[in-house]
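Subgroup meeting minutes
Present: P.N., E.W., G.H.
Scribe: E.W.

1. P.N. recapped why we're keeping a running log of single-chain structure predictions: easier to compare across weeks, and new members can see raw inputs and outputs side by side.
2. G.H. added today's entry (319 aa).
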Amino acid sequence: MTRWGIAGCGFIAGRMADVLKGRRDARLTAVAARELTRAQDFAQKWGVPRSYGSYRELARDPRVDAVYIATIHPAHAEIARLFLEADKAVLCEKPLAMSEREAHGMLELAAQKRCLLMEGMWTVFLPAWQELRERLRGGELGNIRAMTADFSDVTPYDPHLRIFDPAKGGGALLDLGVYCLHTAFYLLGTEYRSLSVGGRSAPSGVDSFASLTLAYPDGAEAYLTCASDMVGTRDARIMGTKGWAQVPSFFGATELTLHVGEGKVQCRFAQIDGFHYEVEEFHRLLSEGKDHSDVVPPETTLAVQRVMDQAMKMIVSRK
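Output recorded in log:
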């Protein structure tokens, strides 16, 4: 039985609380926020025994084995360090950090402390993506030549909203593009040869649209788009020398269609909250004494942060 704490009391924390409360191998024992009343309200709603008005108090709680960090992006690094220093395993919501340098420091500390630290990229744990990767590795689509992935939607501009506020880690890349990048690296690997970037910024200065083209040494290319100012396809397609595949709902990924020759194979998967698969993997890693995941390994997290660092700089320089 893993005893969990949650840092942060927003919407995404509630989703995780719902998942943890429904698992037999987990017990949600504590929650913390910067304001005690918010933690108390959350605890009452989800039936959590203990609530704290600071993350340091949660870090000191000996009845907590693992902590899920669900705060705004800029707070991830500082809070994760608190828990790692307290020898607690950490599942941190994406993106792990605000920069590659920040992420590297977090991962280095986790390795030194021999504590599990995993970025909460729950989509790659979904059966649809895992099934697709196995089929690609089996050569079902032949040599992969191209991939497209989009995660875009319109959010009416409001400088106070988190996605548009630089102080809260806003921007389409950190909020949405991170999913596209992780999926591309999950399927094609992190050893790309070059990166091309296009994009535009919101009035607040954060990126509101980004297009990234990753060129690989074998000639394959991944074209990834994300935006907060346009409606997109929100799907992924992978094209090879023998056929192509589509995941119609990129974010939910409950369906996969493969087109090979004249045939078509449709795979459908249960509509289960992706956090279940993520937590299941995290529990497995804990039981085996691992300090990282092979599905979302440190090198992939760092590669994603590196690309986002470069892309955000290039988009801003075009203003």
